[in-house]
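ingest -> validate -> predict -> emit
validate: passed (alphabet ok, no gaps, 410 aa)
predict: started
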Amino acid sequence: MTKKKQSLTTSQARKRLTRRELLGRAVGAVGVAAVVPVNGQQAIDTTRRPGRGPSEIDQRSPFVTPRRDPSATSSRTPLQDLRGTITPADLHFERHHGGVPEIDPDRYELLIHGLVDRQTVFSLADLKRFPSTSRICFLECAGNLRRGNPETPPQMVCGLTSQTEWTGVMLSTLLRETGTKPNATWFLAEGQDAAVMSRSIPIEKAFDDAMIVYAQNGDALMPGNGYPVRLLLPGFEGNSSVKWLRRIEFADRPFMTREETSKYTDPLGDGSISRQFSFVMDARSIITDPAYPRVIEPGWHEIRGLAWSGRGRITQVDVSTDGGMSWHPADLQAPVLSKAHVRFRHLWHWTGSPAEIMSRAIDETGYVQPTWETLRLVRGPWTRYHQNPITSWTVGENGRMLFGSERLQI
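emit:
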């Protein structure tokens, strides 16, 4: 047989391969490739045996271990470990004054009374029959600041803030059912916990964006965040968004409860006068990376963090890498929502010399996050709440990140 005839015979044989045979060869090639180790992969080859099947409730990977930092009365969100802006429900910060009550949802009732046209009791089922609404917004404790120790991660600096998609019914919707008297100017929100947490709220907030909430992030409220029902006042201090809500009473004046007289007031100057009913949380930001306890190497780093304001949208975040001597606008990561956390980022080249990085937030009202010196000058040394100063991280020649600076005393 000639070489030409042999060549034609081989060509004809290739044409006679069936589609099934071709697919079989392709699968075999993929199978061989799958077991070839890739440089840098783990020694255990996960392609050689099946993984676990579906479960009733999924859990995080054992390699992902974010944790809140609990104390006797609160637990803080690990801001440095999260991505995006939504806080997982089980990592949302908690602040308790009388522990977490266990409330049977089938026996739950919300009473609306006082200066209303029709005193009404709503069950949880009643609340869920009304048109629901959802919104993404942050909550923040009015006392969300810790100072003094340079070995402090972002979680401990201001981890008493979290962000959720909240679902429930607008309070204004319920008030169309009950009506309100013309002389009603305030309402009392009262909780069902052992502290009987109670706060007076201006009626304007009830008809603005106040919500009666029964779900977060698509599921029922977590017990530590008010299950089965809580009040949500977007942009207001967290204490006023009363959890385990059991009644709302309308009146023509504030109720002057314990939590708005002896607590949650801001002493000014020498402490002889106080700022009261200071509900709105002012604009604030914090760099979450790089931060303690990270150790960085010289080179390019992306400075990342969170900013938020109870007055509306964040319009700008500035970053300084020289202790506040110069500022540069950071990029804001969409979505940028009203009264909500927003991510910011800024590219920074660290040369290896000591440096100090910080951020400041500006909201749509023009409010600029103040320095600690400016805040203390205005408020005096006695204020415990609504402290939102610019915070910083220092990095030494060894690349170790530490919280604060002696110059700013924070």
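The longest strand covers residues 161-170.
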